[in-house]
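User: Hi! I'm working on a homework problem where we have to compare a predicted structure to a textbook description. Could you give me the structure for the chain below?
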Amino acid sequence: MTDQAVATSINCRQCAAPLTVEQGQPFVTCRFCGATNFVDKTRAVFHYLVRPTVREDGARAALNRWMAGNATVKDLDRKAKVDSVSFEYFPMWLVRATLGRDERVLLKPAAALSVSEFEHLNIPPSDLVPFDSKADGKIIAPSVPFETMQQWLIDDQHLAPENIREAALVHLPVYLCKYTFNNRRYTAI
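Assistant: Happy to help. Predicted structure tokens:
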């Protein structure tokens, strides 16, 4: 992940005015009182949405291509019945951390998830927008606390908490596709 401009906001410590904070910037100057505010991103959790890039018709077309492909049951695209397609935002913890001399971006689920591939996604910073609770689509509430995710990083990655440079709760846009095949119900994401 590169340091491209992604904004969120904090309040000025001097006058409490809202300040826009750019990703990767350690300081922000208040335009009202002139105070320089240090942004300690190791203790802040930013909240973003990933900008959706696919509409429902595109999601249906991708599902159909997958069903017609070689990685599924023969003729699944013709024998299965798509019951529903719904759009939602799934929460993930995004952590920027230093491991030795390297910086890594790690993703961990912030809600119950059976799809481990989400942890291997690459989220371009340009696709991040500040969280908006009025965004179109169902927003799944996070159920995995920050401390639990931090313990996962300690256990799985041997990552000490002081190596976390920045943490964010990021909602990924996904389409949940429910389909029936041979009288059994399946879900594709």
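For your comparison, note the following. The helical segments are 56-68, 76-79, 146-157. The radius of gyration is 20 Å. Good luck with the assignment!
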